[in-house]
């Protein structure tokens, strides 16, 4: 309603100004919001379950069950990117793609010679992991990686000859719903074999973490991201394997941007997405994923991209601290520990 003078009432104008200011504040502080579905550069964030797709009937030999199949990130045929190793308490060491999704192998395939026997119908539920840009996980022999042409013409990633797949029902990093499906699908180990936990009676020295590492560096049931107290740096973030997590001061948080690509990304692998529920002691402010320039996805805290360091060989190492005056361990709030102000 307008004032008889032709001007809007003062109360209405004040409310309008407040609303406008609030909108601008929300835009400029988006990275500080725990809620919200997009990062500052307009990308989807969080770990939302994708829309469902039609299932592929039971009895097909591919391990599909009846009902609708969730179309996870694996169904989008994105390149595998920088591979990583997930140390699962139940499955042992499992290889994942750059987005943290489990990679699988199919018993009906062959490794010598490499051949995929997953046909077009099978691929709807078990999308092939494209080989383009794939890089071995830190500490894994890169010569094990190869490729094979799938039935749909995709150049599919192989590990020690075994074709690699994602599972459409895995909807978030850390899922392994395809394990044992149909008695023919299994999560893959970093060497291409079937992932399996250490056998009973195994020599503990073969699987236990280095005894010189701080006890909290390798908890019995570690979260995807957690913290440990370093004697020199204080409380810092570590990944599931107890490896120190770093920040690069040449990156930016607004908009989110990683300036570590190419050779840099080989030395400083991006931390794959970790579900909020799979963290312990980590601030949720600005906790979101970022679509990297190389096609992978990267976890952030307070909107800052996170990395590990290839020069760290065991849990508790902080060899990346202060490297080049640009790399620093990360605090639970996303701060660069020890960086000059």
TrEMBL record:
Signal sequence, renumbered to the chain: 1-32
This protein's record includes keyword Transmembrane helix: no
Region (Disordered): 33-76, 188-232, 317-341
Keyword presence, Lipoprotein: yes
InterPro entries: Lipoprotein_repeat, SCO0930-like
Biased composition (Polar residues): 38-47
Protein name as it appears in the record: SCO0930 family lipoprotein
Keywords per UniProt: Lipoprotein, Signal
Domain of life, per lineage: Bacteria
Positions with biased composition (Low complexity): 65-76, 206-223
Cross-referenced Pfam families: Lipoprotein_15
């Amino acid at each position: 309603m307008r004032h008889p003078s032709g001007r809007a009432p003062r109360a209405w104008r004040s409310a309008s100004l407040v609303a406008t200011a609030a909108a601008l504040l929300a835009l400029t502080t988006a990275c500080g919001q725990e809620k919200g579905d997009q990062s500052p550069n307009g990308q989807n964030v969080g770990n939302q379950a994708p829309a469902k797709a039609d299932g592929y009937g039971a009895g097909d030999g591919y391990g599909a069950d009846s009902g609708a199949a969730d179309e996870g990130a694996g169904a989008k045929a994105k390149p595998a990117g920088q591979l990583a190793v997930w140390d699962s308490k139940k499955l042992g060491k499992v290889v994942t793609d750059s987005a943290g999704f489990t990679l699988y192998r199919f018993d009906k395939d062959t490794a010598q010679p490499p051949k995929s026997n997953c046909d077009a119908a099978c691929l709807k539920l078990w999308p092939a992991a494209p080989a383009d840009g794939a890089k071995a996980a830190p500490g894994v022999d890169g010569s094990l990686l190869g490729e094979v042409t799938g039935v749909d013409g995709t150049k599919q990633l192989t590990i020690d000859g075994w074709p690699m797949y994602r599972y459409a029902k895995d909807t978030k990093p850390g899922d392994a719903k395809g394990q044992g499906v149909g008695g023919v699908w299994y999560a893959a180990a970093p060497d291409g074999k079937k992932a399996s936990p250490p056998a009973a009676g195994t020599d503990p020295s073969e699987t236990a973490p280095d005894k010189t590492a701080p006890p909290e560096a390798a908890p019995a049931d570690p979260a995807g991201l957690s913290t440990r107290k370093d004697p020199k740096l204080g409380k810092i973030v570590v990944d599931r394997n107890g490896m120190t997590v770093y920040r690069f001061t040449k990156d930016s948080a607004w908009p989110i941007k990683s300036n570590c690509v190419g050779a840099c990304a080989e030395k400083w692998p991006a931390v794959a997405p970790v579900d909020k529920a799979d963290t312990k002691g980590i601030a949720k402010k600005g906790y979101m994923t970022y679509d990297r320039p190389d096609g992978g996805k990267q976890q952030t805290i307070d909107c800052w991209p996170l990395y590990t360091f290839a020069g760290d060989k065991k849990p508790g190492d902080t060899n990346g601290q202060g490297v080049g005056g640009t790399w620093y361990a990360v605090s639970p709030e996303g701060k660069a520990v020890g960086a000059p102000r």
